Structures are given as structure tokens and as C-alpha cells.
Amino acid sequence: MRRMIGLQAIVVTLAMCGSTCLAGPPEIRLWPNGMPEPVVPADPAEVVEKRADGIQRRTNVSQPRLFVHEPPADVKRTGAAVIVVPGGGFGVLADEHEGSEAAAWLAKHGIVGFQLAHRAPTNKHPMPNEGPAQDLQKAVIEVRRHAGDYKVDPKKVGVLGFSGRLCSHRHGVVL
Fold first, then answer.
1. Could you report the per-residue pLDDT of 11-70, keeping only the tens digit for each?
2. For the chain, how long is the longest CA-to-CA vector?
3. Is the CA virtual torsion 109, 81, 29, 56 positive or negative?
4. What is the DSSP letter of 165?
């Protein structure tokens, strides 16, 4: 009987909130009308998995996008935003501990966290950082473009990178 009541509570909760309870954070697609080369093929499909080491990784990202982590309603907003760039050596994105967790921490402190899912894998491309660097530059443009939607000052947009190779000036990334 308890199991039945518990199941009914889950069904009622899902009915009340619709698909938003199961959905992740809102997303901003970076290249809805096509992206510049080099691209990551859509086949195989994007995969998010937690491996034996307990670290969640995302790979086969062919549609770069931002996951938006806004401050909770009871937290005073600072007007700042940070684009969080997970590391992973251009083969995968360590997008939980170096992505969603960092963005959520920022949100709890009044900063809108934008978690970047950049093209991956690109570690076999002639210039592995080229596509991800384009995605980061486009992310800055999009965050500034959507600043009003997220109550962000477009002059207060920063980047937190866990991959020194992507965020390094020596690789030609200029924001």
C-alpha cells in the first residue's frame, strides 16, 4: 500500500509540474543556423555518462550550447555572469564537477552561471582548440546578447575555464 501511495505522489507531482521537473536547466544554442568548421559529426549521438571513477563526462557534442544556471529566487543577484568551461582534453567534457556544479555554486552566490558544452571530441582535429575556441567566443556574444533576459550587466561577463588549453591566449583565444 505504501508503495502505491508513493507512486501516486510521484505521478501527481509530475502532473503538476509537467515536463519542467524532468528537464535540465534552460539552454541557449550557440549555432542554430549552422556553425563554422571544424564540426563534430552528429553521429554518434551525444552521450552523458558517469563512469566507474564517479566522474560524469559528456562527449560527441555536435550542437554547442549553454546551460543556464540562474540564482535561486531568495538570492540577491550581483548582475554578473560567468561562462564555465569544463576541461577534458578536447576528447570529453568533465561537465559535472567542472561544469554544472561550478555553475550552480556561482548561482547560489548571485552570479548567473552559463555552463558551456563546446564541441567535443576535437582532440583528433589538426587544431583541437579551434572549434571549442569559436564556441567560447560565441558564448560570450550570446551571454551579452541575452544579458537583459537574465538580469546581467553585459560588462560583467567572465570566463571560468578548467582547461588551460582552451582559455590560453597562446592558442589564439581572444575574448
1. 444 444 444 445 688 999 999 999 999 999 999 999 999 989 888 999 999 999 999 999
2. 64
3. negative
4. T
> Measuring CA to CA, how many Å separate 55 from each of 51, 79, 99, 104?
6, 31, 11, 17
Report the candidate in 136, 124, 121, 135 with the shortest Cα–Cα distance to residue 40.
121
- Mean pLDDT, range 57-85, rounded to an integer: 97
Which residues, 6+ apart, have CB-to-CB distance to 175 below 8 Å? 136, 137, 140, 159
Please give the Cα distance from 25 to 68 (Å, whole number).
6
Backbone angles phi, psi at 140, to 5 degrees: -60, -45
- Judge whether 99 and 115 are in contact, CB under 8 Å: yes
Half-sphere exposure of 96 (CA within 13 A, CB side): 10
Grid cell for residue 34: 549552422
